[in-house]
Amino acid sequence: MDIIVCVKHVPETAEAELKIDSTGKNIEKTGLVYDINEWDDYALEEAVRIKEKQGGTVTAITIGAEDSDATLRKCLARGADKAIRLTDPKFVDSDGYAIAKILHSVIKILHYDLILTGMQAGDDGNAAVGPILAQMLNIPHATMVKKLELATGTAKVNRELEGGLEEQLEVKTPALFSVQTGINEPRYVSIMGIRKAMQKEIKVMTLADTGLTENDVGTAGSWTRIEKLYVPPVEKQAEFLKGTPDEIAAKVTEILKSRGLI
């Protein structure tokens, strides 16, 4: 079972105080700590678990600058066998569509039985790369995958739906699955794994190696672009009502009447 996992090196922003940079189109990244995208972490763990049960290989692929090697080294330490980094200044400002084209240019010439991606990216919230990549490769796909069971030529997946519901699908393989958090419990990286990972090669490929042109990537090759990034202004504030239950009920009624809701 040969599995490809697409991962992304992203800044950890959950507890950081974010500021817009001078371009007005990105955040100020100085001082931010980077790590593997949260959803991709679960995709990698699922790939390694499948390999441990069925044999085969796991190849981690990312698009990014040299510092993205830290995420690839983490993948190698966790059980990935190979790592590929696609990097080129022309890739900057590529949207989900252009990113999918870059990944497709390499993956289409590799052997794979399964492709796993995270459900979305933690930095820009993009969740389109996986489905677009699957369409380009002309293989089936499913998103929001919470459970994955493999059989010969097929995979049974549970997808998360709205309202706490799930649906179960049977998908022919090879296929691409976008993995949701909670599908497993990612393992910690061992010291021995880190040492072994430092000795493994990370294959680096540029635009010239992909067969794409400058017009296929970056802003020129994207369907969408960021015109402006800003913090939404505070226009309304919550009003806390005080008093007895009857007094509060009366105030709520007056508010609803004043807004024409009752």
Summarize the structure.
This protein is α/β, with parallel strands linked by helices.
Describe the structure.
The strands form 2 sheets. Strands 9-8-7-10-6-1-4-5-11 form a 9-stranded mixed beta sheet, with helices on both faces. The protein has a two-stranded antiparallel ribbon with strand order 2-3. Strand 7 and strand 8 form a beta hairpin. It has helices at residues 38-54, 69-78, 96-107, 129-137, 191-199, 207-210, 245-258; strands at 2-6, 9-11, 34-36, 57-63, 82-86, 114-118, 141-151, 154-160, 166-172, 175-179, 202-205. The termini are far apart. The longest helix has 17 residues, at 38-54. 29% of the residues lie in helices and 24% in strands. It is an alpha/beta fold. The chain has one domain (2-216): 3-Layer(aba) Sandwich (Rossmann fold), CATH 3.40.50. It is globular and about 70 Å long.
